[in-house]
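Postdoc handover notes: sequence design on the structure in folder B. Input tokens:
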């Protein structure tokens, strides 16, 4: 049985939603994600615009501005809830690691 959509987020999903805690256009996100992850995570333009369409359809983000082909977005209340839920899940994994190994990340 497939798991429900958005039960967990991919890294790309997480960072797109994180970027949209402030209003941004796609080009801004394509530059910001590698910057905030020190190059560890990148998102291609095809992936980004596919995720934006999915997030719009799911009500996780909203379009805020359209200037020609340039569109800007911002996270919605449902998107914030999902982002916080994913953050809590990641924190729980870190806690599990620390309990299991007896050490914190250094």
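Designed sequence:
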């Amino acid at each position: 049985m497939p798991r429900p959509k958005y039960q967990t987020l991919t890294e790309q999903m997480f960072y797109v939603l994180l970027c949209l805690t402030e209003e941004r256009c796609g080009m801004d996100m394509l530059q910001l994600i590698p910057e905030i992850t020190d190059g560890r995570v990148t998102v291609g333009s095809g992936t980004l615009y596919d995720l934006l369409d999915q997030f719009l359809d799911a009500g996780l983000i909203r379009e805020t501005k359209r200037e020609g082909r340039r569109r800007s977005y911002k996270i919605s209340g449902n998107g914030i809830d999902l982002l916080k839920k994913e953050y809590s899940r990641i924190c729980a994994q870190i806690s599990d690691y620390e309990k299991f190994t007896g050490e914190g990340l250094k």
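Context for whoever picks this up: DSSP finds four helices and three strands in the chain. Don't rerun without checking with the PI first.
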